[in-house]
């Protein structure tokens, strides 16, 4: 009996005329994620099938499927001909070694199949009971749901249970964004959330060598790699912020230092976005989390931008963000104790409700244009 993996998608079903576009994109994302693993890929109506893989690669394939936005669920399944004897054999094999309660569910998409679904359910259930003393029927909440899917193309899938992917939309279906990634907990989660909605991402990180060390940069590289697993690869641009921070420290009012730093980060991010074709800037900001993330702080920060800024975590509590960061395995890296450039010249009392006018006055004291041009010129690029 042959084993395959059935993959299902979810939100794509809601799409109208351009549904085919989303399906093809998801197909190509799955194929590129599995490109180094021996397999064949079969698109069917409303699902895909991964076939001809080596069983020793099964866990690796599952790990990959769990990181592809757009994959809703998948199941390991036996595939047999639309033949009741063969189906019986598959059901019996699937039930061996199981103890507890079960239910058989039959979907008869192939209307030429001679046994109707209710009858097939009853027959198959009876056969299982006859063969295994340690299984009983429970149609309300069975321990094992045995699914028999009799397809129009002559094949039947027999499987028990589903594994969950992350759902969402296929990467590449929602434009391109530039993620401001720090070494903290929030921004990798923000990147993951956007990847899940189908946005292709690149990352920008500001570091302040020698105030922030090599280890801080390595940490961001590690985080970018982890987020890129959900995004089919990413580029990271590392921009030196040292000169800019020194200038801000020297010329600007203490309480406006962070506000101005963030406004300059946005300007640099916008310039880079134009260069790489990104249509939105993404941050890990969450309303009220720190002084710079008040509504006034965010308004003052984004005032310098002429493009959308998306903050997928704006209404998330820290505990919810931490939960996701553990699920996507960025948490342990994020909590490693390295400095971020934002904490290097931290003022004692940062302004909580900054005014745009004051920010502009403070910025007029330095040559922002030259500093920005130089920072972009010297950006380092890493590809994952
Ligand atoms: P995080 O946990 O993501 O570091 P945070 O709670 O520490 O966030 P801030 O330091 O105020 O918050 O940063 C807010 C957002 O600004 C971050 O989520 C990130 O998108 C961006 N950011 C902060 N520092 C940097 C940096 N050094 N390089 C790039 N982006 C940054
Ligand atoms: Mg931070």
Helices, strands, pairings?
Blueprint: E1 2-9, H1 19-33, E2 40-44, E3 47-51, H2 58-65, E4 71-81, H3 84-95, E5 100-108, H4 117-131, E6 135-137, E7 144-150, E8 155-160, E9 163-164, E10 176-180, H5 186-196, E11 200-207, H6 214-228, E12 235-240, H7 242-251, H8 257-276, E13 280-282, H9 295-302, E14 309-310, H10 318-327, H11 331-334, H12 356-363, H13 368-377, E15 380-383
Helix pairs in contact: 3-4, 5-6, 7-8, 8-9, 8-13
The chain binds adenosine-5'-triphosphate and magnesium ion.
Describe the 3D structure.
- The chain is of the alpha/beta class and 384 residues long.
- The protein has 13 helices and 15 strands.
- Helix 4 (117-131) links the parallel strand 5 and strand 6 (135-137).
- Helix 5 packs parallel to helix 6, helix 7 runs antiparallel to helix 8 and helix 8 (257-276) crosses helix 13.
- It is elongated and about 85 Å long.
- Magnesium ion binds at residues 182, 184, 340, 342.
């Amino acid at each position: 009996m042959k084993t395959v993996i059935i993959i299902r998608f979810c939100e794509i079903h809601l799409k109208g005329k351009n549904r085919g576009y989303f399906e093809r994109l998801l197909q190509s994302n799955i194929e590129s994620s599995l490109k180094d693993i021996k397999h064949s890929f079969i698109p069917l109506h409303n699902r895909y099938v991964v076939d001809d893989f080596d069983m020793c690669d099964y866990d690796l394939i599952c790990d990959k499927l769990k990181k592809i936005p757009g994959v809703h669920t998948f199941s390991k399944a036996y595939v047999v001909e639309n033949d009741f004897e063969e189906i019986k054999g598959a059901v019996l094999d699937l039930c061996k070694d199981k103890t507890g309660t079960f239910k058989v569910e039959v979907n008869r998409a192939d209307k030429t199949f001679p046994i109707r679904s209710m009858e097939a359910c009853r027959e198959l259930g009876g056969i299982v009971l006859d063969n295994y003393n340690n299984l009983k029927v429970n149609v309300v909440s069975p321990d094992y749901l045995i699914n028999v899917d009799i397809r129009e193309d002559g094949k039947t899938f027999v499987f028990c249970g589903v594994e969950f992917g992350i759902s969402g939309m296929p990467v590449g279906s929602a434009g391109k964004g530039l993620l401001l990634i720090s070494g903290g907990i929030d921004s990798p989660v923000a990147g993951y959330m956007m990847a899940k909605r189908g946005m292709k991402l690149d990352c920008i990180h500001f570091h302040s060598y020698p105030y922030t060390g090599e280890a801080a940069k390595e940490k961001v590289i590690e985080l970018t790699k982890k987020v890129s697993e959900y995004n089919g690869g990413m580029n990271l641009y590392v921009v030196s912020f040292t000169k800019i921070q020194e200038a801000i420290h020297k010329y600007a009012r203490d309480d406006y230092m962070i506000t101005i730093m963030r406004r300059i980060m946005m300007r640099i991010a916008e310039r880079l976005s134009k260069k790489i074709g990104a249509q939105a800037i993404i941050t890990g900001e969450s309303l009220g989390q720190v002084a710079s993330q008040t509504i006034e702080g965010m308004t003052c920060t984004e005032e310098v931008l002429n493009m959308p800024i998306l903050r997928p975590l704006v209404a998330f509590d820290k505990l919810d963000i931490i939960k996701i960061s553990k699920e996507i395995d960025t948490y342990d890296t994020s909590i490693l104790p390295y400095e971020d450039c934002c904490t290097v010249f931290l003022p004692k009392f940062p302004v909580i409700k900054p005014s745009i006018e004051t920010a502009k006055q403070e910025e007029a004291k330095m040559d922002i244009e030259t500093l920005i041009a130089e920072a972009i010129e010297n950006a380092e690029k890493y590809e994952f």
